[in-house]
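Try this one yourself first.
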């Protein structure tokens, strides 16, 4: 079972968080950075857990940070993905100017294309703008993490070979739109995620969410789809392996 997007380094005990996830049946996870400090923390965690799948990137909230240092890390640190990156139209313009967000995202899409790496994309109130940008990079694939758009928008990404990340929101019975999308998309278009500790699930609020909660998300998605949990996990893991590479599942064999 693969957690395609989480932030264990945003907790007090990142190593313990990963170990707890493994003990709970999570076979692997992608530890994502999002700014200079976070990226360094993710690299330090991989030093403690050699081979841990990581993503290095610059989140739109931090678009005013120097992108040069991030691109250097991407080139030299061998992540399995670039991210968390993307666009956010909900954040204040003075904090993260829209044009700067676009420039930073564009730079990361360019590197993704050059290095043949997938991207993990944040898109809050910006799904259409993200799509307009990524279609300019037909050789880049990725995950729309914590997807907040419509089914029709999700289908646009899926038709381009992208995946849609489903997390704790689908455990909430009143999340009708997201749950409806989860029912309608093909299973081949989905991956599981927690975004721990940032997005809550039914009965577990932020900041207490952990990658160890992924089995609950898998169970909720399987129920929505009307399939056995093992079938759903097998399919979503296959999707993740196709995008991120099969090596993301190998590192845990030494622990």
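Now uncover the answer:
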């Amino acid at each position: 079972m693969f957690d395609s997007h989480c932030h264990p380094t945003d907790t007090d005990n990142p190593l313990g968080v990963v170990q707890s996830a493994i003990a709970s049946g999570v076979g692997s996870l992608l530890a994502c950075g999002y700014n200079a400090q976070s990226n360094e923390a993710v690299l330090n965690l991989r030093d403690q857990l050699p081979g841990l799948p990581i993503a290095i990137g610059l989140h739109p909230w931090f678009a005013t940070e120097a992108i040069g240092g991030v691109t250097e890390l991407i080139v030299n640190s061998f992540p399995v993905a670039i991210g968390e990156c993307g666009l956010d139209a909900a954040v204040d313009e003075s904090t993260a100017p829209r044009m700067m967000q676009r420039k930073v995202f564009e730079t990361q899409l360019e590197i993704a294309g050059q290095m043949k790496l997938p991207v993990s994309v944040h898109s809050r109130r910006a799904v259409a703008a993200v799509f307009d940008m990524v279609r300019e990079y037909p050789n880049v694939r990725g995950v729309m993490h914590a997807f907040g758009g419509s089914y029709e928008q999700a289908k646009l990404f899926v038709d381009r070979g992208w995946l849609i990340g489903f997390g704790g929101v689908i455990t909430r019975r009143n999340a009708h739109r997201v749950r409806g999308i989860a029912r309608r998309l093909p299973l081949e278009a989905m991956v599981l995620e927690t975004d721990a500790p940032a997005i809550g699930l039914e009965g577990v609020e932020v900041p207490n969410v952990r990658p160890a909660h992924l089995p609950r998300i898998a169970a909720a998605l399987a129920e929505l789809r009307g399939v056995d949990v093992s079938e759903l996990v097998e399919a979503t893991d296959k999707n993740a392996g196709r995008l991120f590479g099969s090596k993301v599942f190998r590192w845990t064999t030494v622990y």
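Discussion: The first strand starts at residue 2 and ends at 6. DSSP finds nine helices and eight strands in the chain.
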